[in-house]
Design brief:
55 strands, 3% helix, 3 helices, extended, 8-stranded mixed sheet, mainly beta, 24-stranded antiparallel β-barrel
């Protein structure tokens, strides 16, 4: 066995893992045969060329392991393939030694691996720092999975937006109506406008079937087509089948940055994106790869701080660029639009044109490359084109488009090239140029409309320290016949102090030999409570200047008061004042204005109705999904959406929540401190996931029991003895009886029979439990004796 001096000589190898290695050493020595001298090993029976050792193998991982190690006659050490695979070695030598049904590999054959055998502690120390190892992949963000949808109950809603304007004999009224219905088969939407002349115009009639599992939407009726990279958006009636990533809000369809590095020991990583801590991840020693890094759109810099158990830090810096226009490799985004073009939308209820069809298909080929194919067809012609988006390293996004289309036997080409770059929202650059031949046509173009020769667009924006911003925008359209249009705008803002900001806008428009220049200077201040004021001066070339002053208050949410006031001096003298109010059943607005002695008035109202499962509510307009919350008999009870008070229950204990987020988890709850002790509920919070613009029912009344105090007396008006066994005969629920025959019960509202027993005496009493008992007055009961 090893001498004490031998063990002392290797004490420095134990460091902070001394207790653990002592255990392994004792175990190894106990398993070593007695005849092993000077820490030697046992020769494997039947094999005089291989020696089998039992050693504590420490490769710098989280835990050392007791493993079998072979020593060949030439002094080399061998480990089995399973051990090497657990170390994630990327290059395991092909040469192996068959032994005991396994393949063993010499440590000397592994490039970059260093080791040291300590015979006294029966341990093998392996250094993997210089070896090639496969990286361990860690996801820093939950990948999107469709949230389980709440059960859909048939229902609907009706919104009305009424507007009146008048003054000096010019009165006018108009209204907008929206009707929605929903159920398990989808949801329908009908919109229309009407005016005081009796005119009624239908806008959209659509039935939608949404499938979050397949990220697709099927629309029948009136729809709006997809434009793709070079098409035109048109209104039509027909069929639309398209990808809709919003059906899974937690799913990220575009590639996120992938960060890589290496840790010498088990460590903790802190990931900073543009100086903001975004994630923390424990890793083992060796190379690592961080996927799904939660980065904002655009470019920036990621810093990974590697901190080991001893507190030593290493910083890794990597630039990145993220674009939502790209798709994950293998992910498709498609849109099929087929139908008849809509004409005179908003002027006629049913005016349709030619039949048409478009198909747009985008596909992620690589984390840096997304391709698009688009085809169009319309009576008499069509078009076909392709586009590509390519991320150039961490510098920016390049786009290229080419297409050919025409009608009536003629056609022309179209091309476009663009570049986008955004650095953490602080610096941005956008460039795009389009070319087109005169004969090029797309679906939706007028027959006599010629495409411009080219269009140019450029924008540069920057956020300058400490609190300033600057932007420059230029666009030019070169139309056929030399009628060019150019727009140039330079804008900037500077925050002078908290809430105080100054802005300047300089613009120029050139068209057909004319030049229009203007300058606008603005000084604004934001007060507390949502109140803000602004002073604006505008100067237009060759025109008198105008000065405008305004003040307004914006409510913090949908409920409350707001106001606006404005006066303007210059060639036109005018002033206006407006008052807005938002309540549980809608919004009201009133405005008055005066211009050069003429007075005008305007009044508006927005309201809505919602119904679900037999309950009808008068509410503010339903713009998204909603929930009907049933609290049983709890009236005037506050209902919270994500810890924000959003509604109160009515006299029937029902509340409507009109502002839920579709396809997302909405936490609806009530506060325990507001809950009467005599009316418990099964839970204080529930999470619902509604469909788009649909309703769900949230029931807090699973436990309908209420608390009630009773006083039990026998037929001689003597209190039932304390300690008597009191039970509800139907449910068998026990309740203790206190002094004076008093008992506290939790029972559902309705008729109950109570049975009390003490010794040889048993009696029964009838009880009618009210839905809302009075806690201040106990209920007196007579318990009549019965045969036992």
């Amino acid at each position: 066995m090893c001498s004490l001096q031998c063990l002392r000589g290797h004490s420095s190898d134990f460091d902070q893992t001394f207790p653990r290695r002592v255990v392994f050493t004792i175990l190894a020595l106990a398993l070593t045969p007695i005849d092993a001298r000077d820490c030697a090993s046992v020769v494997a029976p039947g094999d005089d060329t291989v020696t089998e050792w039992l050693l504590v193998v420490d490769a710098g991982e989280a835990d050392a392991q007791l493993r079998h190690v072979l020593r060949s006659s030439d002094g080399r050490l061998w480990l089995d393939r399973g051990a090497l695979s657990r170390w994630r070695l990327s290059d395991i030598p092909s040469a192996s030694l068959p032994y005991a049904g396994q393949h063993w590999h010499a440590l000397d054959d592994i490039a970059g691996l260093r080791y040291r055998h300590d015979a006294c502690t029966q341990s093998l120390h392996v250094d993997l720092t210089a070896t090639g190892r496969s990286a361990v992949s860690h996801s820093l963000m939950r990948r999107g999975e469709a949230a389980p949808l709440s059960e859909v109950a048939p229902g609907g809603y009706f919104n009305a937006d009424l507007l009146y304007s008048g003054g000096d004999g010019a009165d006018r009224a108009a209204s907008f109506f929206e009707l929605g219905v929903f159920g398990r088969g989808g949801r329908g939407l009908q919109t229309a406008v009407a005016d005081d002349d009796g005119g009624f115009i239908r806008l959209d009639s659509t039935w939608l079937i949404e499938s979050p599992e397949s990220l697709a939407t099927l629309a029948l009726g009136d729809s709006t087509s997809s434009a793709g990279s070079w098409g035109r958006t048109v209104r039509y009636v027909g069929l639309r089948w398209a990808t809709d990533f919003s059906l899974q809000p937690y799913f990220v369809p575009f590639p996120q940055p992938v960060l890589a590095g290496q840790a010498a020991l088990p460590s903790t990583l802190d990931v900073f994106i543009n100086d903001s801590l975004r994630a923390r991840q424990p890793v083992d020693g060796g190379p690592f790869e961080l996927q799904d890094v939660p980065a904002i759109s655009g470019g920036g810099e990621a810093v990974i701080v590697v901190r080991d158990a001893l507190g030593r830090e290493t910083r890794l810096t990597q630039p990145f660029y993220v674009s939502p226009q790209l798709l994950h490799p293998g992910l498709a985004d498609y849109a099929l639009d087929v139908g008849f073009l809509r004409r005179d939308y908003g002027l006629a209820s049913a005016a349709y044109g030619d039949a048409f069809g478009t198909l747009t298909y985008r596909y992620g080929l690589h984390p840096t490359l997304t391709a698009e194919l688009r085809g169009e067809w319309q009576a008499g012609g069509g078009a076909l084109g392709a586009s590509a988006l390519y991320r150039v390293g961490h510098l920016g996004l390049v786009s290229a488009t080419t297409a050919y289309g025409g009608s009536d036997g003629t056609g022309g080409g179209f091309g476009a090239f663009g570049l986008e770059r955004d650095i953490a929202g602080r610096y941005g650059l956008s460039l795009r140029r389009e070319w087109a031949q005169a004969e090029f046509r797309r679906v939706g173009d007028a027959p006599d409309q010629s495409a411009p020769r080219y269009r140019d667009f450029a924008r540069i924006n920057a956020v300058l320290p400490p609190r300033a911003s600057l932007s420059l925008t230029y666009s030019k359209e070169a139309a056929r016949g030399g009628r060019d249009l150019q727009l140039l705008n330079l804008g900037g803002s500077l925050q002078i102090a908290q809430g105080l900001q100054v802005g300047l806008q300089l613009g120029e428009v050139r068209a057909e030999g004319t030049r229009d220049r203007r300058a606008i200077a603005t000084l604004s201040y934001a007060f507390a409570g949502g109140v803000s004021a602004a002073l604006q001066h505008q100067q237009v070339a060759a025109q008198p200047s105008r000065t405008r002053a305004s003040v307004q208050r914006t409510p913090a949410g949908a409920l409350g008061w707001g106001y606006r006031g404005e006066i303007e001096g210059g060639p036109v003298q005018r002033g206006s004042a407006a008052l807005d109010y938002g309540g549980n059943v809608g919004t009201l607005s009133f405005a008055a204005s005066q211009r050069d002695g003429a007075t005008g008035l305007r009044a508006g109202a927005r309201t809505g109705l919602a119904w679900l499962g037999g309950d009808v509510f008068w509410t503010r307009p339903v713009r998204g999904s909603f929930a009907v919350v049933d609290l049983g008999a709890l009236d005037d009870m506050g209902v919270y959406l994500d810890n924000r008070l959003i509604a109160r229950s009515n006299a029937e204990g029902v509340a409507l929540l009109p502002d839920l987020r579709p396809y997302e988890r909405n936490r609806i709850g009530i506060r325990a401190e507001n809950l009467p002790i005599e009316q418990p509920v099964a839970t204080l919070a529930q999470t619902v996931v509604p469909r788009g613009r649909s309703g769900v029912r949230v029931d807090f009344t699973h436990d309908r029991r209420v608390g009630i105090e009773v006083v039990l007396r026998d037929e001689n008006e003597e209190p039932i003895p304390a300690g008597s066994a009191l039970r509800d005969r139907a449910s068998g629920t026990p309740h203790p009886v206190g002094h004076g025959g008093r008992a506290w019960l939790r029972l559902e509202p309705g008729a109950h029979t109570l049975r009390a027993g003490s010794g040889a005496t048993t009696c029964e009493a009838s009880l009618q439990v009210p839905a809302q008992p009075d806690l201040g007055t106990p209920i007196e009961l007579v318990c009549r004796a019965i045969a036992r």
